[in-house]
Amino acid sequence: MSTNTLAIEHVSKRYGDVVALDDLSFEVRPGEIFGFVGSNGAGKTTTMRIALGVLSADSGQVLLGGRPVDLDVRRTIGYMPEERGLYPKMKVGDQLAYLAELHGLSRRDAAAAVARWTERLGIAERIGDAVDALSLGNQQRVQLAAALVHDPAVLVLDEPFSGLDPVAVDVMSEVLAEKAATGVPVVFSSHQLDLVQRLCDRVGIIAGGRMKAVGTVDELRGRGRPRLVVHAPEAPPGWADHLHGVRTVSHDDGHTVLELDDDAVDQDVLAAALKTGPVHEFSVNRPTLTELFREVVTA
């Protein structure tokens, strides 16, 4: 196992009769951005807290570079919780320096790291302000700085894009990509599946405490049935219903979306469309990650 791989191996967790995690396994590789998605209560936050050693698993283990997550390993992890975990009355700079020193940095190195990350995240001018004087978006930036200030070996982020404006989303996206480019494994949860689709090398979909699907975005989208988008302005409703393995998903003003079984022949669809008149568009469209997510979690 690579020195930086974060591995969740057969982890289970119960709260009384409630199964929070059920034999959950996945890994986040060096230099990889891994999107961890699921509905509320699916087990994402529980998984992250177990990965950090904040919660203990009933069974299974978490390894970073092949080592169990003990105190020394935990100090190398950068964690951003969904609920802001900052001291609201403490000044931004003092707080970040304090957290950096807790992770083992000298006072001098901590000050340099605070200056670097507050500048990079666009909050350098607020370094002397108390956290609770900041907007929610800037508090989120400070929370990310707290996860980065000690130059972590792995990043674990719980809903890091929540409450951010588009400019802040772009900044955070760039920072995560930059950290991954240095070989740091990055795992983050998010309900913003368009961002997950755009940013992540691989995605894991969790439902009911179990990992339902893992793969690259293209691999996951390829699991869904292909859809044909046909623009035939003169085609009447139901024009493709007689074709083998073809179902009409929608038909609106000559724009038809068709779902094809594996044994359907797309050229038969094209021939049928041409019989109705001109065809302005004929293209294959894979389901988006959002569409696939709905399919997976409701299966």
UniProtKB/TrEMBL annotation:
It comes from the Bacteria. Residues 6-233 form the ABC transporter domain. SMART domains: AAA (SM00382). It is found in: Cell membrane. SUPFAM superfamilies: P-loop containing nucleoside triphosphate hydrolases (SSF52540). GO terms for molecular function: ATP binding. Keywords: Antibiotic resistance, ATP-binding, Nucleotide-binding, Transport. Pfam families: ABC_tran, DrrA1-3_C. Transmembrane segments: none annotated. Its main location: membrane. InterPro entries: AAA+_ATPase, ABC_transporter-like_ATP-bd, ABC_transporter-like_CS, ABC_transporter_ATP-binding, DrrA1/2-like_C, P-loop_NTPase. The lineage of its organism: Bacteria, Bacillati, Actinomycetota, Actinomycetes, Mycobacteriales. This is ABC transporter ATP-binding protein. It comes from Rhodococcus gannanensis. Belongs to the ABC transporter superfamily. The keyword Transport applies. Gene3D superfamilies: P-loop containing nucleotide triphosphate hydrolases. It is a peripheral membrane protein.
